[in-house]
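Batch job 17 of 40 flagged for manual review because the log was empty.
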Amino acid sequence: MKNLKKMSREKLGKINGGVSNCSGCPTGGFGPGGPSGGFDYSCEDYNVLPSRCKSCVFVSSECFQ
């Protein structure tokens, strides 16, 4: 088996599908009920996020049902 070199985080971020820029995206979890359900934000809040932010946040699987 061929030895593989480790890739830097910068190079990994350039791979197609890698998260490139999460600045300006909210932190915290998204789930049903928002703060009253124990999450920072609601599923509706997640649905209006820009596509670049959707890969940067934690979201409950219940938001996709």
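Reviewer: the log was empty due to a logging misconfiguration, but the result itself is present. Residues 33 and 42 are 6 Å apart (CA to CA). Unflagging and moving on to job 18.
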